[in-house]
Prior knowledge:
Elements: H1 8-16, H2 22-40, E1 43-46, H3 48-64, E2 75-79, H4 106-113, E3 117-122, E4 134-135, E5 139-140, E6 142-143, E7 146-150, H5 156-163, E8 169-174, H6 180-186, E9 189-192, H7 210-213, E10 217-222, H8 225-235, E11 249-252, H9 263-276, E12 281-284, H10 293-301, H11 307-310, H12 321-331, H13 338-349, H14 354-374, E13 378-383, H15 394-399, H16 406-409, H17 411-418, E14 423-430, E15 437-443, H18 449-463, H19 470-484
Parallel strand pairs: 2-3, 2-8, 11-12, 11-13
Antiparallel strand pairs: 1-3, 4-5, 6-7, 8-10, 9-10, 9-14, 13-15, 14-15
Amino acid sequence: xxxxxxDAVSLSKKIASREVSSSQVVKTYIDxxxxxxxxxxxxxxxxxxxxxxxxxxxxxxxxTKKAEGRLFGVPISVKECFHxxxxxxxxxxxxxTTHREKQDAHVVKRLKDxxxxxxxxxNTPQLCFCQETDNKHxxxxxxxxxxxxxxxxxxxGEASLIAAGGAAVGIGSDIGGSIRIPAHFNGVxxxxxxxxxxxxxxxxxxVHIREQERMLGIGAISKSVRDARLINQIIxxxxxxxxxxxxxxxxxxxxxxxxxxxxxxxQLLSSIRDTFTEEIDTEQNNPPFFNEAALLWQQIMSIxxxxxxxKLMSEDGSAVPIAEYxxxxxxxxxxxxxxxxxxxxxxxxFKPNRKQTDNIIMMITxxxxxxxxxxxxxxxxxxxxxxxxxxxxxxxxxxxxxRRTFLNYMPYVAYANVWGLPSLVVPIGTSKEEGLPIGVQxxxxxxxxxxxxxxxxxxxxxxxxxxRCDAFDQHLNEEAEAELV
Length: 485
């Protein structure tokens, strides 16, 4: 097995035992990134030279004493929104390339303290405000399973990179499916932490609105569930409860004509239920406030009418979303992608009034204890999106349509955000016709993270989990052969 197929836990063991050197591992991953990135555009800023220096230092250290740190000498990548000392944090906006960050984000510091070596930063949509990864500064990221299809967003660059073996493990953030949708589309593991379990200090844009902050989760995009568990142990401020899956019940969603999922996704969910029905109690039901989740998510994301993000579109804060949208749509002259400006126009249109905002806060206060109690010993087994990865642009049209079709397509991912719940995505199969990955998400209350990881490992064992995208390897080989000819 190639080094680029191995997860972070495996690599850390091999490095610690001196089976391989950190320099060898880091160089292998740098070569892999150089090979895949021209086609995928997943990595937008590298620190290859510094990474190689750090790897040599790790090897020197290991020659004189025992490795210290759970990620000692292991190459990782991080989403562009996290500050890394000496690197840019642009949010996909060109005006933010005038200075480099002077200190690491909270989670980056914790990962470095465990010995991780950062290879670079991965692409996002502008201001991380879209489920498709495209921006005017760095361009569009492609899905390695089919480059005509979306990698998802806003952690799409990270998921594409991990799917193609560009790092041992990566870090993303999720306020509206931003880890889980890319994990599902690219066939990787994705974990969203729960409400305020992981600090978002040192991220851009920083979430100041309390109701939005509780929806934000940070976690691993990885090749294995055990890596997702390890990363969460490193970056989380809380410790998961130790519990046995024997105490839990798996809850599957009740089909609803308004919330579609395609036949293959439905069949895979059914096969999970059939596989574990004798081992773990199951039921078919929708959790409390499930039907309200998508609308609540949209209202919370629009709570200030998008004003705080609109101020960040330009250096002087003067850019107006409708003007930028028209400039880009008709003349292609805006520095702001039409995805962002249109989304911010929608946020202003759908901004809740004072009474609606009060009702949102009341509903969250009323529902929080009820949902925590309901999920005390339950794990929700939900689809992520109604299909595998769509063609570029189609996902955006579904979620950001003025016809509010997000009400049909967002409930499954919105639920974990609105209620600040931890959620784990695991690949469980591929579509028959296109061969595209299909994932499932496991959701429970804060404190039940270990139960999610245990169930995720069972899914890996039974359904296969992550495998590096061999279709993309074939694509690269065909390109190389064509160049020779």
